[in-house]
Amino acid sequence: MKKTCVVTGGSSGIGLSIVKLFEQNDYQVFNLDLTPSTTGEFCQCDVTDVKQVTAIINEISQKQSIDVLVSNAGIHFSANIENTSEDELDKVFNINVKGAYAAVKAVLPVMKSNNSGSIILISSDQALIAKQNSFAYNLSKAALASMAKTTALDYAPFNIRANAVCPGTIETPLYHQAINSYCKKSGANKAEVHSEEEKLQPLNRLGQPEEVAELVLFLASSKAKFITGSLQVIDGGYTVQ
Questions:
Q1: Active site residue 137
Q2: Most CB within 10 Å of its CB: which of 8, 105, 158, 159?
């Protein structure tokens, strides 16, 4: 019988790579996203709507077990605290943090009843370090790291593991969107900015979504059954500089 994995934000970037890899490894994958996708079993969902997330996950859990949750849905926002409006702060937290809260809270009853489960939150290297003009995004990703730790402690008695994956600079549509936005504001050349980003990494390249997906699959597997409450960094060595 196939295991079941629920992924939020699985229609592009890291999330899409996760959906594809889990399907290749014989999981039944449900993708909760606003953007339609032909990969995984697509469930149109606004993760900022807690009731909607809860209803969709409850519907899945009534039909089958949920073995893995990957909370991946998120947005990037570039600004310092003075240039971050209250509405912008709310938007980042509603998607990045409240969306994760909704998904984690919804899967816990079925995982508790099974006395088993793996919860993986896609955080960021910014849970460990600060970056300029990244106030709201940095704050949200640090919150996800905290969520992984507290969930790991609270639900260890139910054999439920919770971990956060902390990617560095990964070449995704979100990355290119951020670079395009920066170049539009600054007038910088995109090819040059991309090259500089690569040079900032000790391995002299950006990470790829498929590499993050491999780490997520490992954390979901029995090979990682003694790993919980951890922050798993995958950043090409950036944060150790």
A1: yes
A2: 8
